[in-house]
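Hi team,

Filling in the usual template for the complex we talked about on Friday. All components are listed, including any nucleic acid strands or ligand strings, so the model treats them as one assembly.

SUBMITTER: L.P.
PURPOSE: interface mapping
COMPONENTS: two
RESIDUES: 642
SEQUENCES:
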Amino acid sequence: MMASNNPAAIQTRGLSKRYRRVTALSEATITVPEGRISALIGENGAGKTTLLRLLAGLARPTGGEVAVLGSPLSQDPAFLADIGFLAQEIPLYRRLSAEDHIGVGAHLNSRWNGAAVRQRLESLGIPLDQRVGTLSGGQRAQLALALTLAKRPRLLLLDEPVAALDPLARRQFLAHLAEAVADGGLTVVLSSHLVADLERTCDHLILLAASRVELCGDIDTLLAEHQLLVGPRKDTTAIERDHTLVQAVRTARQTTLLIRRNGPVVDPAFEAADVGLEELVLGYMGQHAGPAPAHLTTIGEDQ
Amino acid sequence: MTWLVWRQYRNQAYFAAAALAAFAVLLLITGRQMTSQYHSALSLCSASHNCGNLANTVTLGTPLLSLLVTLTVAVPCVLGIFWGGPLVAREFEAGTNQFAWTQSISRRHWLTAKAGWALLAAAAWGGIVSALVTWWSSPVNALEHQNFQPAQFDIQGIVPVGYAVFAVALGVAVGTLLRRALPAMAITLVVFTFVRLVVGQDFRSRYLTAVTETFGFLQRAGHRPAVPTGSYWLVSKGLVGPHGLVPTSQPNGGGISVGVRGFPSINLTNMPSACQALVFRNPRGVFPCLTAHGYRGLFITYQPADRYWAFQGIETGIFVLLAAALIAVTAIVVLRRDA
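RESULT (copied from the run log):
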């Protein structure tokens, strides 16, 4: 467990979720300290949604331990009051208006800031009295996000929250989120398969690949631990022995290695470079998919 | 939660209330006419001391109206299909259960409010429709003494409340298990109809042991069996054979009808072939023939009219218990399964 003076918002050990034949999440051990904005990154089907649903209490784990804000998962109102969850498909009552949803929230939550939702929707020009089913996808996403925040949760779990938003709205929303976290008392985990969206806002990373946790930690620390080595095509056994090789890309003339360092790299033939978040993420993802260059192209097109 | 339930379903509630109000107005107007028609016919026949076949001389209401009232037998099923089936299933389909289940309320609270109001509404609608139909039918009942007939029993008294509660609970449970509204609605229709038919046809007559009344072929004075009166339910009738009761087969074919004063007539069938052969050649020889073959008399088996409310209560209880079991299953699934 974490030291008590720095309590973790999320602490899991060996957390697993199996459906009949499929393992959706395998032995996930993660820690997210309070007050962080954590980027939950992974390809589609890597287990992001499963992890978020487990943490929100919507799905039951089939193995492992979880503590969310210091307590085990439960369906208690007291537990649920501290958690804000927004599912990827942005489920809202299509026949009810935004104003109705604000009313629902007021009736179902002990602390509720309906005025903030109205203010936010008015500033975005989203009608309050219109049926939600008639709003655009982006407007529905904004409403759902505002409703989730109005609950004043201590832990916010957002599954692909910016997917439905245009680039400007994405940036505004993430800035809004950062402000809320800066005000204190809020921890955020938001999933995405797009690194670029999250790099600016997030200070913590959970990287999932093939239903396993590949990386979990402070982004700055993780970046400092990794290094990109570029050098001639040569034998890299010595480097692989001293450090943990994440990914190697070998062309006819050049070798590019992504390593997790154990101490300094001394081979003078290689030029060491710092790693960016995107390179780090793609490096780990590339381990599980076919040849790395091809994979990079697909990710690029996805944007 | 009640607030959310009302917001979600108020349009349905308004619609159902409007339909119910229209139905009530129709029955109140025609019911008053029928009552006065019945009373004037009764006073007319009393004056001439000839009320014996009043049922054959007076026609109450119109065929269309009677058909409409008979069709209220479908009300519980319709409530089950349209209120019960989608109640939880639609939430799963739209994912809105994820919204509701991450507000600061427990799933138990959520289900209690949703299912509770739906069941209460079903009981209210079933009860109001039934109360109207029961009141409207009172002159018909007084005239025809058919209260135990399924066409009357199933739409009057308190059983429609039990049916409606069961139908909605069934819809909710099936919808929760399937998580799809349309299949849940279809299955609700099929299962509800099946259960109603099985209970009505195979179980209802056994709720209480029927009264059996036997009488010999040749009635002697002072040896009269008790005559059932009012809206009793004739369960079976036939011959008292050498090895027990021999009910007549339905429909009657080729027998002779035996009438004992005050009793329903009994068509003699399933007789020994020797006696059957006498039916047309020598009808007077039938009874002696039966006696010679060890037959001792005639019988009727019936449920007395005063058991009507006991039967209503037992049947309502059965359906309410079934509904409770279905709601328990729903609760377990909602509390245990993933969103």
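MY TAKE: Residues 221-302 of chain A form one domain. Residues 290-303 of chain A have pLDDT under 50 and may be disordered.

Thanks, L.
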